[in-house]
Amino acid sequence: MTKKELTERVAKKVGLTRKSAEQAVNTIFGIIKESMVKGDKVVITGFGTFKVRKRATRAGRNPQTGSSIKIAGHKLPGFTAGKTLKRLIK
Q1: Of 5, 9, 10, 80, whose CA–CA distance to 47 is shortest?
Q2: How far apart are CA 28 and CA 34, in angstroms?
Q3: What is the per-residue pLDDT for 5?
Q4: What is the DSSP string of 48-62?
Q5: How far apart are CA 32 and CA 43, in angstroms?
Q6: Which of 12, 21, 66, 77 is the most buried (most CB within 10 A)?
Q7: Which DSSP helix (H) or strand (E) runs through 86?
Q8: Alpha helix locations (H) across the chain?
Q9: pTM for the whole structure
Q10: Domain total for the chain?
Q11: Cα angle 86-51-19, degrees, rounded to a multiple of 5
Q12: DSSP secondary structure letter of residue 25
């Protein structure tokens, strides 16, 4: 499902105009992004949790030369599905 399809479904389900539904969807995604940029986690009960995960610095190997290299640690977005969502998908 694309963002456009999601917007259309929200508009039909709630009875909004397509433009209003698009604003609502964009606002929700924007709030989730802002919270994650701050380092906060976003918990949506019954759906899941969005949070920032940290990868530690680690040693790696250059496949071309075989020499060891240091891979810097970094942050990345993560999502963990909630119990309810996991049960529905099973």
Answers
A1: 80
A2: 10
A3: 96
A4: EEEEEEEEPPEEEE-
A5: 10
A6: 21
A7: helix 83-89
A8: 3-14, 18-38, 83-89
A9: 0.78
A10: 1
A11: 80
A12: H
Return the sign of the alpha-carbon dihedral for residues 15, 7, 33, 40: positive
Residue 4 to residues 22, 47, 60, 73, Cα–Cα distance (Å): 8, 21, 40, 35
Tens place of pLDDT per residue across the chain (90 aa) = 999 999 999 999 999 999 999 999 999 999 999 999 999 999 999 999 999 999 999 999 999 998 999 999 999 999 999 999 999 998
Contacts of 43 (CB under 8 A, 6+ apart): 49
- The CATH number of whichever domain residue 18 belongs to comes to 4.10.520.10
Which residue range is the domain that position 28 belongs to?
A: 3-89
